[in-house]
């Protein structure tokens, strides 16, 4: 089983969506967490965008890296700030960096803002499908 940590600055949108998607796509082949450098709560539009895909992240919560219960095998940073400030992990940890724009910073109508969350969700899903499709859980 691969243990994957998604790390972002606020652990409110990108990393929360990635956590939910990885659980859905990876099933029992993966153990998944998300965390933030400066956690600030799950964004309601992230919850809504994921619900559209049939994935409920409403019970997920923002947490600091120190709250991750185990040492990950893979750390995926989802923003440049998190990549720059990512702590070192013991052992052999694969690090990936997916620099994705923060949908929470998009201005406009609620529909325009939701469209940004949908686009981010789709990009993460595509990358995870490629990553998990090439990995075999133990």
Can you characterise this structure?
With 138 residues, the chain is an alpha/beta fold. The protein has a single domain (2-133), classed as Rossmann fold (3-Layer(aba) Sandwich). Helices cover 37% and strands 16% of the residues. It has four helices and four strands. It has helices at residues 14-26, 44-51, 80-85, 110-133; strands spanning 2-8, 30-36, 74-77, 94-97. It has a four-stranded parallel sheet with strand order 2-1-3-4. Strand 1, helix 1 and strand 2 (30-36) form a beta-alpha-beta unit. Helix 1 (14-26) packs across helix 4 (110-133). The mean pLDDT is 91.
CATH topology: Rossmann fold
Assigned CATH architecture = 3-Layer(aba) Sandwich
Contiguous uncertain segments of 5+ residues: none
Largest sheet: 4 strands, parallel
By CATH's scheme, which homologous superfamily applies? Response regulator
Helix percent reads 25-40%
User: What is the general shape?
Assistant: globular
SSE class: alpha/beta
N-to-C SSE string, H for helix and E for strand: EHEHEHEH
Under CATH at level 1, the class stands as Alpha Beta
